[in-house]
Amino acid sequence: MASIANELQNLPLEYVIAAPMQGVIKASELAANTTLEFIEKIGFNDEDGVKSVKLVEFLQRQNDSESSLSVPLLSMVPVPYIRIKDMKINFDFQIKTTEVVKDTRSSNKTIKGKAGWSWGALSISAKGNYRSANEKTTQTDKSANLKVEVNVVQDEIPGGLQKLLNILENSIVPINNSGNQTIKSKKQVDLD
Q: pLDDT tens across 151-165, in order?
């Protein structure tokens, strides 16, 4: 039993528990960086360090009039924003010790004797055999099982990003190109 207690004391439990948690933290960091790269790649043009919103132009022709609509691309696509909802760590460590003791003993004895009293001969014969075997076997089986479950969900967009998307949505401007008539937005979006 003392060896089982020693085995349990030697387990690096802080590593067994901390390593999956560190992995989840790194995964969260990678997910956040992926979201940031997505926003920068899909939502903005970068010309000499000056960022401008990528726009998709829609053109509609009807009879003799033509109108167009400029829509920020970022407002049209879902932004991948995931978070880790929960994490479960299950660690199972088993130690099984089996001790088998075999003790085998055997003996063979043979005694023969002759006696005679007429000035004859006396004959004695003895034969003996003894065998002893002692065997002790100790077998220790150790097994460990680590199970980590991580639940990842699409999270709500953070407040700052939602405000940016609202500004971009409000900057959508229908422009009527028939004649000199043009409708322009009253808001100017500048992201410098």
A: 888 878 778 878 877
Non-local CB neighbours of 83 within 8 Å, separated by 6+ positions = 28, 31, 152, 153, 155
Task: Provide DSSP, 15-30.
Answer: HHHHHHHHHHHHHHHH
Distance, in Å, from the CA atom of 42 to the CA atom of 80, rounded to the nearest integer, reads: 12
Q: 1 Cβ partners below 8 Å, 6+ apart?
A: none
Residues whose CB is less than 8 angstroms from the CB of residue 57 and which lie 6 or more positions away in sequence, other chains included: 68, 69, 70
Strand partners, 173: 70
Tokens 């967009």 belong to which residue?
Answer: 157
Instruction: Give me the mean pLDDT over the 94-107 stretch.
Output: 73
Residue 99 pairs in a beta bridge with 138
Strand partners, 126: 111
